[in-house]
Structure formats: C-alpha cells, structure tokens
Design brief:
Elements (H helix, E strand, L loop, with lengths): L4 H21 L4 H8 L3 H9 L6 H11 L5 H15 L14 H46 L5 H4 L14
Helix pairs in contact: 1-5, 2-3, 4-5, 5-6
Length: 169
C-alpha cells in the first residue's frame, strides 16, 4: 500500500528506523534480508523508506529472519516491536485460522516482557523527576530564607561562575 506525506514520514521514522537498526545490528544488507524472507530487495527498501506499509505477516517474516537461530520468544518479541513501530499504518489480514497455541504463548510472553521493560523505564523516569523536584524545592526554600535576590548568580552562588565585569567596551 503506497503512502504519501506525513504518513510516509511517520512510518519512516518509526518502522523504517527500527527495521534499519535491527538489520544493521545483524550485519545484513537489504538484499540479504530480502533473501531470508523470500522477497525482493526493493520491498525492504520500500519498507525502510516508508513508501510501503508493512503487514502483520511481513512483520512476522521479518522477525523470524532477523532472529534466526535464536529462541522463538526473541522472534515473537521482535515481531511485537515491529508491529508496534508500524502503528496505525499496519495492514492486518484476516486470518483463516487462529495462530497455534505455542506461537500465541510466545507472543504473549514477548508482550509481557516489552510491557515490563516500558513500565520499568517509566518508573525510573518518575523517580528521577521526583528527585529533581525535591532538590529544586529545597533550593527554593533556601533561597526564600536568604531573602530576595537580584540575579540568578546571587540565587545560586555555588552554581554560577563568577565573571569579572568588562571595562571600557
């Protein structure tokens, strides 16, 4: 499915960048990856540049090719990450039959791992933000005890470099 404008740029920035990063991490050229999935190098080029929207089947084939020789959960995790990177541009085909139970378990395990990673990163960022807010609040209270100040250098004397005034400019 050809894309234009902002949709193309968004897909290139998300899915295309993720695919390029994973392909280069494996040391593969576009033609190598195309051979592994049984497609053409032009297809890989179009996916990476955002000119073609990926399908759920293509994400699965790409994940299996990129994670060949590794455990099935790694391939399922890569598939889920590629699908999430594709976002609303993902083309979903109607399935004739449900996925096999083992594959469904692997995909669910991969989703749980990804969600746990995202939750841990959010918690780390929230803790860092809270720490910064506490430090900032402490500095504001210290400043209030010192009284009004005329400049940032006076407000934060230990953080502001002292620069001698310029003469005769």
């Amino acid at each position: 499915m050809p894309l234009e404008g902002h949709a193309r740029d968004d897909l290139r920035a998300t899915f295309g960048a993720e695919l390029v990063r994973r392909r280069l991490a494996q040391g593969l050229r576009q033609s190598d990856l195309a051979g592994l999935i049984g497609g053409a190098a032009r297809t890989i080029s179009e996916l990476e540049s955002g000119r073609r929207a990926p399908s759920d089947r293509m994400c699965r084939r790409l994940a299996e090719a990129l994670e060949r020789g590794r455990d099935p959960v790694a391939a399922a995790r890569t598939e889920v990450e590629l699908i999430r990177a594709a976002g609303p541009a993902l083309v979903v085909f109607a399935r004739r039959r449900p996925p096999r139970l083992r594959r469904a378990r692997e995909t669910e395990e991969a989703r749980r791992e990804i969600d746990a990673t995202i939750a841990a990163e959010r918690a780390r960022r929230a803790a860092a933000t809270a720490k910064f807010a506490d430090l900032f609040e402490g500095e504001l209270r210290a400043q209030a005890r010192r009284g009004p100040v005329g400049s940032a250098a006076e407000a934060f004397p230990d953080r502001w470099p002292r620069v001698p005034p310029r003469r005769g400019c």
